[in-house]
Amino acid sequence: MKIGIDIGGSHVATGLVDKNGELISKESRDINISNIKDEKRVESLLVEIIENEISMLLEKNDFTVGDISKIGIAVPGSPKNGKIRNLVNLHIKEFNLGEELNKKYKVNVKIKNDGKCAGLAEKKYGSLKKYKDCVFLCIGTGVGSAVFLNDDLLEPKQNPGFEFGHMVIDKEGRKCNCGKNGCFETYASMKRFKAEAINTFKMSNTTEAEEVQMYIRKNMDKKRVRDFVDEYLENVSIGLSNIINIFEPQAISFGGSFSYYCDIFLPILKEKLDKLKFNKDTKVDLTTAKLKNDAGIIGATEI
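Given the sequence above, the corresponding structure tokens read:
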């Protein structure tokens, strides 16, 4: 029995996955570090959450620790050799999470960038299964990604690479958590989309993402809402056009909370991209991730 763990910028989700890539059971919990200043305390909290979720899954499904054959972890940043690194949203510079979990579970713990894990799941089981050249973009708290050429996941030697979220689309733009200005994710992330929607439409600061989505859907016929969405997608299209012009994918699949808006976003994006593509005859299918927020968990068990 395999365990997949997906560590996001603000949550941890852990699941039991069978040999066919089916998610049997899942637990998830938000990570609130707003009042934690010590990096070591954040690391301890992360381990504590993961161990609690695994314990609940085992108990709920009548398994024991001895039944665990593999633990795979999908994580933001640049993981390497069992270490998670550069988790800017959790303020973790480097932490050997693999070693910590191995002490308790006595199995090999494999860790890979979350965008790559989700991409692997979508490529093998989901929306990208029929394409040889394709890109997966997970747009949520940040922007994760995976690139496939001729069915193979592209993997640089030094780091996971393809940090599309941190390509600069405006050199004098917004400050990013990574330290640079104008990174793609400071314009494209759904975290930013939600914050700007709350500000623009004078919503309460406690407004949930689902409420923002309902408001957008209900008021898309109003000019101020259409203009807001159009401005957001204008910035998204700049980043996407760079990706298309470099990799010439047959398809791009969108995961993360962005996927919940795909019926609204994708037709508008397609029109914008048709104007920005270098090769005008390039045909790119824009599609929605089939596995939704479970892709990271499932893909983590494939590494």
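The first strand starts at residue 2 and ends at 7. Try to locate this feature in the token string yourself.
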